[in-house]
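As a warm-up, study this chain.
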Amino acid sequence: MPSIFPNPPSDAMSDSKHIDALVKKYLGQLQQADELGKSIEEQVKPTAVLFIDLADSTAMKSGTSARSWLGHIFTFIDAIKLAKKGSGTVVKRIGDEVMLTFDTTATSEQSHTCLSGPSH
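Now compare it with the structure written out below.
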């Protein structure tokens, strides 16, 4: 009859001892996983995510003058600069969209700088 164990016990080791060995092995792995989880939890911090998108940019570019279009682009770039100044970290850029993250433990001054917007 074939064994149900991944590594069948030898004649010298009873099924009971083999089960005990497997249980100890997997309990050790569970403990390691638990310790890893606690380590990860210690590194996790509250984070806010901000998406900045230049809405309808293709239509806007074809429907406005170059000067007006550049004004929108510069405002978009200013918004990104302000977000970075306010402790934002650029995570991803996709065309005219930017995703930033913020450590929510940032000082209120940093948050105010980011939320006050460009001053033109």
